[in-house]
């Protein structure tokens, strides 16, 4: 599914020092109460969300946003926290990627889209199942193909090598320029397998990645030149899941060698992980990676990102157990469960974990967590049928961008109001931005105002909703809206009139009215 946020350690230090300029950190919240999914998107009351785009919405360059929104990568323009490109993967067959030009208005505190278009993959023989990915240190997008040509040969009528360039068409990481919204190339040197995502070290040469397969392998790639993923050394991990291991060099020069990444890994006895999802580098220098079918996030230390061939301290960082979650209604013991998927570190070194399976929670593992001293919270629960995907942050970590993939079409029984005042039903794929309420949308309280111009304690309709008084005579006091004459304090509620047309003192019916309904009423 999706995610990738690249962290430069030097930038992280600067952000720690300056975070007070924005008040609270985005990870300052009380856990939501652990429950099963319903038709709403549940997040802490301290936070709010704004819809960016929905499945089926028109793209300004033509066409509509496809379904199955996944990796959602914010690429800042000139380092901006409020002006950038938003890349959205679509995990479909054929695959797709959409790029939006978005900006934040500091006056309204809302985001808007000025341009949007679908990326054309025809120059590289198309794409498929674009799952997670990354924003590179040089501000390009890597979109990862989760299916290989060999895997889908019996399912879909696609040739294995349609352009006869020697490379299988699918099973690669694709580099995209978000400025021109065009494909740079498929990065063949990263190997052919079921790509989920990758993370690029701040040396701009080393990448770590994994295969999202039942028989999946963990890889390290070292580019020959910085910011150039077209050539380099590809290694696979062999060793313990709780201890140490080594990087084993694979043959990785010709198309045939690059097509055979999985076969080479199996032949040298590489360690098998069942479903490697996102891989991230933490501010502590450890490399973290989620393994969905093993219900845990591992981490390890690489002896040297460029020249090192040994791995130390491979261990389970979080998962595969039960955690105590404190929320506003008490404390609940919650099993971590199946499906830890997308990962991202925020500016405080907290690890955000998106769950594809079980209750589809958005977990936050606080900086300083260990299995013996756990610090685990639940930030969100996505709507029925959905999984959370794709998070990246703005450089200052004020804003979190994510998508909600494949929610149930039956979620239209209820709506939620977003930060822009739009009513959102989570019945189709949705891309959002999330922030503390002070940082997104209006924080003004809307009040109900009652008009009682004559001050008799009775108001007239309509009740006016406004943050401030609409004018003289309005009050915040809740009053009966039954005043018959708001210019006369001696006239207010309606009178009950009795119909006694024959004058015998017995009424046939009654009617409440400010004035006599007609002949015979008394």
TrEMBL record:
Which PANTHER family did the record assign? DUF839 DOMAIN-CONTAINING PROTEIN, SLR8030 PROTEIN
Q: Which stretch is the leader sequence?
A: 1-23
Per the record, the domain of life is Bacteria
What organism is the protein native to?
A: Maribacter algicola
What name does the UniProt record give this protein? DUF839 domain-containing protein
Sorted UniProt keywords: Signal
Annotated SUPFAM superfamilies: Calcium-dependent phosphotriesterase
Q: Does the keyword Signal apply?
A: yes
């Amino acid at each position: 599914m999706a995610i990738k946020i690249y962290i430069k350690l030097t930038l992280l230090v600067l952000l720690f020092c300056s975070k007070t300029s924005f008040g609270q950190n985005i990870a300052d919240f009380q856990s939501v109460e652990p429950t099963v999914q319903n038709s709403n998107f549940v997040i802490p009351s301290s936070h709010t969300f704004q819809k960016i785009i929905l499945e089926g919405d028109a793209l300004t360059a033509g066409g509509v946003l496809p379904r199955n929104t996944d990796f959602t990568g914010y690429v800042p323009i000139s380092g901006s926290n409020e002006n950038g490109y938003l890349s959205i993967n679509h995990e479909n067959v054929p695959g797709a990627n959409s790029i939006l030009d978005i900006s934040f208005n500091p006056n309204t505190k809302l985001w808007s889209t000025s341009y949007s278009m679908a990326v054309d993959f025809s120059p590289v023989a198309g794409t498929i199942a674009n799952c997670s990915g990354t924003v590179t240190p040089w501000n390009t997008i890597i979109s990862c193909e989760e299916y290989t040509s060999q895997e889908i040969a019996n399912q879909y009528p696609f040739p294995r090598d349609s352009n006869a360039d020697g490379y299988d068409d699918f099973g690669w990481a694709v580099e995209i320029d978000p400025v021109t919204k065009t494909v740079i190339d498929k990065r063949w040197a990263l190997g052919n397998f079921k790509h989920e995502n990758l993370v690029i070290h701040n040396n701009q040469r080393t990448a770590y990645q994994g295969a999202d397969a039942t028989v999946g392998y963990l890889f390290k790639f070292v580019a020959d030149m910085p910011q150039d993923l077209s050539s380099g050394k590809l290694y696979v991990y062999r060793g313990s899941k709780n201890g140490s291991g080594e990087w084993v060099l694979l043959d990785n020069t010709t198309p045939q060698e690059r097509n055979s990444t999985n076969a080479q890994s199996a032949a040298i006895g590489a360690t098998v992980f069942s479903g490697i999802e996102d891989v991230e580098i933490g501010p502590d220098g450890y490399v973290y990676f989620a393994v969905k079918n093993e219900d845990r996030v591992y981490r390890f230390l690489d002896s040297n990102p460029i020249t090192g061939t040994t791995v130390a301290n491979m261990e389970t960082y979080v998962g595969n157990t039960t955690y105590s979650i404190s929320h506003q209604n008490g404390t609940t013991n919650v099993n971590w469960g199946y499906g830890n998927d997308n990962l991202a570190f925020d500016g405080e070194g907290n690890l955000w974990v998106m769950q594809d399976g079980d209750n589809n929670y958005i977990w936050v593992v606080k900086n300083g967590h260990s299995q013996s001293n756990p610090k685990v919270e639940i930030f969100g629960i996505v709507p029925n049928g959905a999984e959370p995907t794709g998070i990246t942050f703005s450089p200052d970590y004020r804003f979190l961008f994510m998508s909600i993939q494949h929610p149930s079409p039956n979620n239209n029984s209820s709506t939620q109001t977003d930060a822009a005042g739009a009513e959102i039903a989570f019945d189709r794929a949705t891309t959002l931005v999330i922030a503390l309420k002070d940082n997104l949308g209006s924080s003004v309280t809307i009040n109900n105002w009652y008009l009682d111009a004559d001050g008799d304690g009775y108001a007239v309709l309509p009740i006016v909703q406004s943050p401030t008084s609409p004018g003289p005579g309005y009050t915040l006091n809740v009053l009966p809206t039954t005043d018959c004459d708001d210019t006369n304090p001696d006239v207010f509620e309606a009178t009950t009139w009795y119909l006694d047309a024959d004058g015998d003192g017995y009424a046939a019916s009654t009617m409440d009215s400010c004035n006599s309904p007609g002949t015979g009423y008394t």
